[in-house]
Amino acid sequence: MAKKKIPDATVKGMDKSTDLVLALKTHKIDALGIEKPSAEAYVKNDSGLKMIPSGYDLNKNETGVAIAFKKGSNSLVTAVNKSIDQIQKKNLTEQYLANAGKYMKVNTVNTSMFHYWKYFAKGVEYTVLISIVSTFFGVIIGVVLALMRFSKQKWLRGLAISYTEFIRGTPLMVQVLFVYFGIGVVVNIPALISGMISVSLNSGAYVAEIIRGGINSVAKGQTEAAASLGLSKGDLMRFVILPQAFKNIWPALGNEFISLIKESSIVSIIGVTDLIYQLNIVRADTYRGVMPIFVAMLLYFIMTFALTRVLNHFEGKMKHAG
Amino acid sequence: MQDKKVLEVNHLSKKFGKNEILKDINGTVKSGEVICVIGPSGAGKSTFLRCLNLLEKPTSGEVKFDGTDLTNVDEKQLINLRERMGMVFQSFNLFPNMTVIENLKLAPIRVKHMKDDEAQKVAMHLLDRVGLKEKANAYPSSLSGGQQQRVAIARALAMNPEVMLFDEPTSALDPEMVGEVLEVMNELAKEGMTMVVVTHEMGFAKEVADEVWFMADGYILERNKPGELFDNPQNERAKDFIGKIIQNV
Hints:
The complex is a heterodimer of chains A (322) and B (249). Chain A has 322 residues and is mainly α. In chain A, 70% of the residues lie in helices and 0% in strands. Chain B has a domain at 95-160. Chain B is 39% helix and 25% strand. In chain B, the strands form 2 sheets. In chain B, strands 6-7-8-3-9-10 form a 6-stranded mixed β-sheet, with helices on both faces. A 4-stranded antiparallel β-sheet of chain B has the order 2-1-4-5, with helices on one face. In chain B, strand 4 and strand 5 form a beta hairpin. Chain B is globular. The N and C termini of chain B lie far apart (38 Å). Chain A: Residues 124-311 form the ABC transmembrane type-1 domain.
């Protein structure tokens, strides 16, 4: 619409009006087209903003506001219509706007990040929770897939290969959305569980490749030596191949765990209150564009760095043993 | 006993794709015999040896071990028969994740279901025989090539095999370590072990072998007592090969 009315403008869209206001304040954009009530609320709370009525002559079809209902909820529609009638009759809109402004009032007094530590703590908690659960199931799925890759059954191998290729060939974000909304069609599962499922499924494919690579990296002579001694396939795996493969698998698996912590941030798009989601809340609440991002960055780094230290410790131990 | 056939190979051939490595190989190894297989590289010596315990699956022909055709048994029987044949590789192939003594004990415990203390006794005795008793708790990576190969021989012997297959056991060694390995093999031959040795060590072949087989182009072209074959080869290729070797020595 702005494109039609203002010929030289480039139009940029964002998800949330708070992001747009933030962009306006940080000079990323010159002006923000927004509905009058929202604009009024923002301007009331922020002396740095000013509202300019566009004076656009819009017909009803362009400005209409709608309320969506579930199909068949007739009584609800009647009730809502009644309320709207009353609001219009008693001219309550002015007062509602003022109230809404109060709700939207941002915290401009105490924008210290410490003030919001609870928000960040909750974000870290969910990020850690998702990471741990997904690592656990990811490893299980990965081991199963890797075993399938070494199976004698062609269809099992094919299934594992297809799965791995497909997961690796599609973005995690799409997988998260697919699990959340796709499974949601059949069973309604909470966002958190959806997030865990999709991240686990995703990680499993990568873990499988890591395990397969580790096993393949063990020299062929080892298998031959074991065979020449009459060792069974199971013993060969258990005593000879896997202990050696594990040394190669461990560092790569560590990298996978670390990237899992970071990648899990994508679940915020389905509303899981992980660190990214929480950081956006803090940003919206304080109008501080950079600081919350920086804090989240630090927190991510602390988590991954701690994990790296732990993994290195075990890696060092293993090196010592052989 | 001396005449018991341990290994019997009939019309053995092996192809890798279109490449025919072994062509109609026949031969018999009797109990207590030491056979040295010599020949230029690419002759198919190692492939032949690896066919004897079916690390390579022959394309056609029979490999009989103690009367049983290995090409015609299922996986489980094959594993059972393999444990009675020891093999020593060019690149040692010790298990790097285990100590020397664990390398020796693994198969006796897992395959022969030997008790740990019994396996320990056998292993220590064998390490003593190859002169590496003091290295029992070392990891293979800390040993020299010659020491690793002696451990590999001891590991194969721990299964008390009826025949030992050696695939160029000294080719990957520094020259000063060849002697210690050959010495162990020499001892073994003297004790009456049946051995098939693919080697470039003509001195060892001359001294220890009961029979030397000369291979080239996938055939065994000549087989004879070492004295005869080295001093008076009949086959042209064998003459040529032995002539070159002796010049170099």
